[in-house]
Amino acid sequence: MPDNKSNRTKRTAPIDTTYGHLQPQAVEIEKVVLGALMIDKDAFSVISEILRVESFYEPRHQKIFHAIQTLTMEEKPVDIMTVTEQLKKEGAIEDVGGPGYVVELSALVASSANIEYHAKILAQKSLARQLISYASLIETKAFDETQDIEELMQEAEGTLFSLSQTNMKKDYTQIDPVIAQATEILQKASANTGDLTGIPSGFTKLDEITSGWQKSDLVIIAGRPAMGKTSFALSLAKNIAVDYHEPIAFFSLEMNNVQLVNRLISNSCEIAGNKLLSGQLSDEEWKRFDVKVRNLMGTPIYIDDTPGLSIFELRTKARRLVREKGVKILMIDYLQLMNANGARFGNRQEEVSTISRSLKGLAKELDIPVLALSQLSRNVENREGLEGKRPQLSDLRESGAIEQDADMVLFVHRPEYYRLYEGTNGEDLRGKAQIIIAKHRKGATGDVLLRFRGEFTRFENVDDSYSAPYSGGGEFIESRMNQGPSIDSIPPFDSISNPNDVPF
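and the corresponding structure tokens:
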């Protein structure tokens, strides 16, 4: 008579997971997927973009999938026999449990009908395991008192960003719905009497060329020191948010939010920046301040002055702003002050290339324009003459990738800074700025002439009338963006602008 007690003791007890955690896994589904791959020659093409070798939890399943992957890449048939031979060639047949286990896998399924659904389950499990692994590593390092916390945060950001990028897959789209979408956009554009298909800049001539800032575009606004890049960006922000009521997010990596708002107040109220700093306003200026500052109240301008902003942080914040505040355009001042999530690069050019590429990806993901300010190299200073001082695409500092990734490149250029007062057509350039559209993927290039009022950090259409007389007192606040050799003095001129009014 068999000993029932003995049999009971030999029975394997189930694992109690009450006080522990198993790694996310789906071993049975792994078997089903591998079996389906061996009975259907077209199955691999269905899951090739979903699964990788590391997507499998079982080591032997990883080796079998690698063998299937190799056979497919070599355009060889995939079945029980070929997979077994490939495993033998790789010296892994015994590691997977011999030919018998391969046969066992193929016998589990009758068709590959649900392989895509099963593959997505495995991909989710794999992603969960990676997150656990990264989290454990960060936790271990966080307990290490010798570890620099700032560096650790950068590393954590970089790792998560890399993980999300790796696992962001967008499927192809048949052309019909895209044509329908394009037709809808065209119909809306035809109904738009203003002929603008994007967000207006507020500058008439610029909008005529660009048709407004377009969705998913990366726009680079570049220039040499003291050309007025930030002033131009602020004028754009004011026009977009105050005049057209479009929500805008302004990421200022250089100035804090109070400095930025002071410049915005100077721009909107037409009060010299030095007077706002000193508080010495005339009665008329106080009245103008009281009236026009109300126009700024409640406007959909969202400012973030986080220093050393990373791409990962920008992406997270931008997503939330778009979702919660309905932001329609992003502005970044400026690109070179960003960092690429603590990742290690061989040189600065590689890092800037990563930042530029990520900004373009962000514009596409959120489907909104992204305007980023950028530096120009000193090559401009070494060239002579009106055309020589004119910025070129090759002057974009630190990376040719900026030019490649950008849908539009604009240069802010003030010839009078270089004591050049007359254009090629004889036009008076004193108190004027050229907005040079050097690259435009969706349209024409060309120059737009704007009036520059440095005392108010303000750009205007040339044909706009002044709403306030200038009473003197410009200022120049040194910018990190503007470091390096520059012209020692600002050329005098007798037009409306004050010769001491140099933009920030």
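(Above: one complete record from the training split.) The chain has two domains: 27-117, 197-482.
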